[in-house]
């Protein structure tokens, strides 16, 4: 049911809706959802630098990846206009699916697609509830988990194959996912071949966020 725009929502109303969205996220398959203040989202220029060094497979080849994403000052200003967001996670088991570049290109797709699906649905529900500026970000490159690494059709012709679910990633927008997630109280690990070989990583995380109001 679509609801009319409410100009002056109380914090109580907003938080009630956000906690309801957290319940919806769980119903959709999220392994966790947490309401956070938008000011707790960390934006750092160095995150986008990591898309270049070492150069990501998707850099410059997807409309939702750097360098096509907004610069960090624009992202920082945009996030500064929001008060609350919903952080969602999908636990990656085995964590080896995120262990190295070759493995992640093959195995990470299903986990990233799940986050994109959940984020898009929460954003849509918030929009229908009158939060018309709700904005969701996923993880990874949509060119990988939606288009199976085909040429990005938006860059090729201006028409996205999956406009309703395709989203930029948090990291592609310059958000420090590790620090944001850790500050929210969730455990998150830097995953690489060495850590996996030592058996030090119990679980990986795919993370998305919906800025609601």
Report on this model:
The chain has one domain (11-212). It is built from 8 helices and 4 strands, in the order αβααβαβααααβ. The chain has helices at residues 11-27, 45-52, 72-80, 101-128, 142-145, 153-157, 177-183, 193-197, and strands at 32-37, 84-92, 135-137, 204-211. Helix 1 (11-27) packs across helix 4 (101-128).
Short description:
39% of the residues lie in helices and 12% in strands.
Secondary-structure blueprint:
Elements: H1 11-27, E1 32-37, H2 45-52, H3 72-80, E2 84-92, H4 101-128, E3 135-137, H5 142-145, H6 153-157, H7 177-183, H8 193-197, E4 204-211
Antiparallel strand pairs: 1-2, 2-4, 3-4
Order of helices and strands: HEHHEHEHHHHE
The gyration radius over C-alpha positions equals 17 Å
Helix count, DSSP H or I runs of 4 or more residues:
8
User: What helical percentage do the residues reach?
Assistant: 25-40%
Summarize the main sheet. Answer: 4 strands, antiparallel
Nearest-integer average pLDDT: 92
Q: pLDDT under 50 segments (min length 5)? A: none
Strand order of the largest sheet: 1-2-4-3
Overall tally of domains: 1
């Amino acid at each position: 049911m679509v609801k009319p725009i409410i100009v002056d929502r109380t914090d109580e109303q907003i938080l009630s809706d956000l906690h309801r969205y957290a319940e919806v996220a769980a119903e959709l398959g999220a392994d966790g959802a947490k309401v956070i203040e938008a000011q707790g989202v960390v934006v750092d220029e160095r995150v986008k630098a990591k898309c270049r060094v070492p150069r990501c497979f998707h850099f410059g080849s997807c409309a939702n990846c750097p360098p096509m994403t907004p610069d960090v000052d624009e992202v920082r200003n945009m996030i500064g206009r929001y008060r609350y967001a919903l952080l969602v996670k999908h636990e990656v088991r085995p964590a080896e699916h995120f262990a190295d570049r070759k493995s992640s290109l093959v195995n990470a797709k299903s986990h990233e697609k799940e986050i994109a699906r959940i984020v898009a649905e929460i954003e849509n529900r918030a929009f229908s509830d009158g939060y018309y500026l709700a904005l969701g970000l996923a993880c990874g490159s949509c060119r990988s988990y939606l288009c199976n690494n085909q040429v990005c059709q938006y860059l090729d012709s201006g028409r996205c194959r999956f406009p309703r679910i395709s989203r930029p990633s948090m990291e592609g927008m310059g958000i420090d996912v590790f620090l944001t997630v850790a500050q929210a109280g969730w455990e998150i690990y830097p995953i690489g071949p060495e850590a996996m070989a030592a058996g030090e990583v119990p679980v990986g995380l795919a993370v998305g966020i919906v800025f609601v109001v």
